[in-house]
Structure formats: C-alpha cells, structure tokens
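Field reference: "sequence" (input) and "structure" (output). Example, Histidine ammonia-lyase:
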Amino acid sequence: MITLTGETLDFTQMKRILYKKEQVAASEESMKKVRQSRRAVEKIVREGKTVYGITTGFGKFSDVFINKNDTEELQLNLVHSHACGIGAPFPELVSRAMVLLRANALLKGYSGVRPVVIERLIDLVNKEIHPVIPEKGSLGASGDLAPLSHLALVLLGEGEVFYKGERLPALDVLTKEEVFPIRLTAKEGLALINGTQAMTAMGVVGYMEAETLAFQAELIASVTMEGLQGIRDAYDKDIHKARGYEEQMDVAARMRGYLEGSRLITNQGEVRVQDAYSLRCIPQVHGATWQTLNYVKEKLEIEMNAATDNPLIFDNGEKVISGGNFHGQPIALAMDFMAIAVAELANISERRIERLVNPQLNDLPPFLSPEPGLQSGAMIMQYAAASLVSENKTLAHPASVDSIPSSANQEDHVSMGTIASRHAYQVVENTRRVLAIEAICSMQAVEYRGTDKMAILTKKFFDDGRKIVPSIRKDRVFSKDIEAMSSWLKEEKMVFEPGRIKQI
C-alpha cells in the first residue's frame, strides 16, 4: 500500500502503482487539509463572495457572477462542455497515471473539493477502472481541460472506461464495483479539469520507457561493437574523466562492463586505428541523452506533486488567488527536450545498423545475407530504420514554440505541452523499433564472428534474444521479427548491468 500525501510521490512509487497495480490510500493529514479547504469554499458560496470559478463563469466569462443556487449546474455544465476530446484514447496505463496524479494534486489541500471526490479517484485506481480519454484536444494551458473533463465524466457515471481488457460504459462498471457516482458541487468540476495531469501522465510513462530504452541502447550497442570488432580504447575511463560529464563517464563504465572479457572487440591499431563516430562516440552521445533524461525526471517529479488548478485556496480561505499554475510550459519544454534526446539514440543506432549491413564498411557478408544476391538479408531493415529516424525528426520539432490564443484572447499564451508529451512518446516507440533492428543485425553479425568469443553479458543478451528472433538462415517477413524484438524490449523491461541483470 502506498500512501498519497500530495507531496511525496516519486518514480519508484509510480512504477509500483502503474505496473504492479499496488493499492493506494490518502494520508489522514492530507485529508484534514482537504476538509479545511472545502469549508473555505462553502463559506465563499454562503456569503456570496465573487471568486473565480466558484461564483463566476470561466475563461472569458470570469466577470459573470453566478447565483449560489446555480453552483452545481455551473460545475456540471463545465465538465460537459469541456469534454471535447478527439481521436484515439490515451494508452490505458496513461489513463491510470492521470487518475492517480489528479488525486495526488487534490490531496495538497489547495483545491476546495470534498474528500469524497478524492476517494472516488482512489477507488478508480484501486479497482483498476481507467477512464477512456481521447488523446487530442488540449492546448496545455488552463490545464488539460478536454482530457481531464473525460476523466471527470467517469466520476459522474458518464463516459466510458477500460476495465479487465474491455471498453465499457462507465456506469455499468461503477455499478458492478459498487463505486457510487458523485454530484459535483461548488468548484469541484473546475478542480478536476484545471491541471496538467494529461501531459504529466503521458510524460511519466514516456520517461519510464525512455529510461529503460537508454539502458538497452548501450547493451545493444555493445553487441554491435563485437559484431564490428570495435576498439575498446575509446571507452577508457581517463578519456571520459578528462571531459568531466558524469553521465558520459557512466555510459563508458557500463560499456566497459558489458564488454568485459570479450574476444571480439579489439585494441587500437589491431584492425584499424580508430572507429567511426557511431561506435567511438557512444558515451558522448548517449551520455548527453542521459543528461536530458535526468532533467526531464526532475521536472516530472516536481509536477507529479504540484498544485496546478485555479484558483488556489490558502490560509483556511482567507486568501484565494487566481494564478497560472495550470500552465504547462515546464513540462512542454521538458517533453520537447526528451523527444530530441531520445531521437538521438535512434539517429546513432541507425548509423550503426548501416555499418553492420554495408559491405563497404565491414568485412561481413553484404547485408548480413546468408546468400548475397539471391537473398537480400537485412537490406530493407536498414531502410525501415532510416524511415523511423526521419519520422522522429519531424516529431522532435518543438511543440512548445507554438501558441494559439483561446477563450476570446483571455488565454492568449498556451504551452502545447500535451502535444509535446504525445510526440515524445511516439519518438520513444519509434526509437525502440530502431534499436530492435540494430539488435537483430548485431546478433547476426556476432554469429559470423563466433558467439563463443562474446562477453558474458552480451552473450546472455544474445541467447535470450535468439529465443525471440531466430538466426537469419533464409529471407522471411522481417517485419514480424522487428515487432517481436521491439515487444520483448518493451514488455520484459530487461536491463543488463555490469555484474548483474535486473528487471525494472
């Protein structure tokens, strides 16, 4: 059981909740703050004070006063009118993260909701009832209004949910699980939809997959090093210490660990004096990606515990402030940065693939073909990798540099953070497939060299990988191999580290 406080949620806990389906509960201390905040809202309504979103309309309608008898209808209308999501739904894992993050944000006690709202969100997490939330339609400021409105619909017994592998009407599932729908009261609709949880949830899932992929990229690159008889000297610790980037030094250390004992890699001057950059500069390039991922992780962990709705209630209601914490700019920039960094893993991987298949760049059979000419071997796998790399270049164009005014120019600068997070995730998916192609090609290359000469860890990867993709003895439909390898990398989440192998 993980206790949510609104302050302490981290990636270790997120992995347990998302992947292990660990149960969650709200801390009693946080619930005290929630109840105090709620009393402040009720006092505002009772006294007829003019406070944005509680006794006024929204956006451009912020100057329209709402009678206290209409506060419930105001909140219901808000959720219904803002449920304008478009397109395919977010992955179910992202929906689960979104519900969790919204509950955690409300537990900070600045939002003025009743405890029952948070309790229902926690029920959805614990009973694995995940709202169907269309992935398009958010500008990433004023919160992720459209996506979070679809989340809020489920609390009302409306909309659809993912439940036990099916997509079903929300009310049917809530009834079955005895989770009773709620009626929204003052501020509660606004508190549910005014936040950055869509972009943050997508970013959290994307980051966790990118982190695993970055580890796997080093291991796969190590197998490529063996297949191409790469030069070990480029990973010498003194070179990387001389530059001083910690992440670069870490990559080089892991590469040395993966390749320890290998009789396929060489010393400088034995086969060639130096390698091409895609081999020699792996620590520098992958290390820079790790620098970016560390930055992204820091921003996401802050946002996972942030109050991002509006207005926020302080000092037991003595201070109620309309601000802009819903603006997704910090996450928008982080997601754009992550897309660029992960795309570079694909860029350099594709160049290694080219070196594995191009007979002008190695002494292996052309395109790793068992019968060059009669059989094409890995020729078109490189084409496929090049296509994905090129697509990544368009996806890595920053979404955050764009802004379109909305709500009659009241909301005149927006972040596009949710677009950025979705694009970053697509880059992760594409990059995994590029690395899958490199893995297939590198395994074929080391077969020609002699797998008995491999390092212990790379040989372990080879043996496990051969259970997924068999050796290329004859041309076949390689698309199936690429998807099988990609699925293995994603689902097994296998990370090989020097001296040990762990599952994350």
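Residues 203-310+321-403+415-503 form a domain with the Fumarase C; Chain A, domain 2 fold (CATH 1.20.200.10).
Confidence is low (pLDDT under 50) at residues 497-504.
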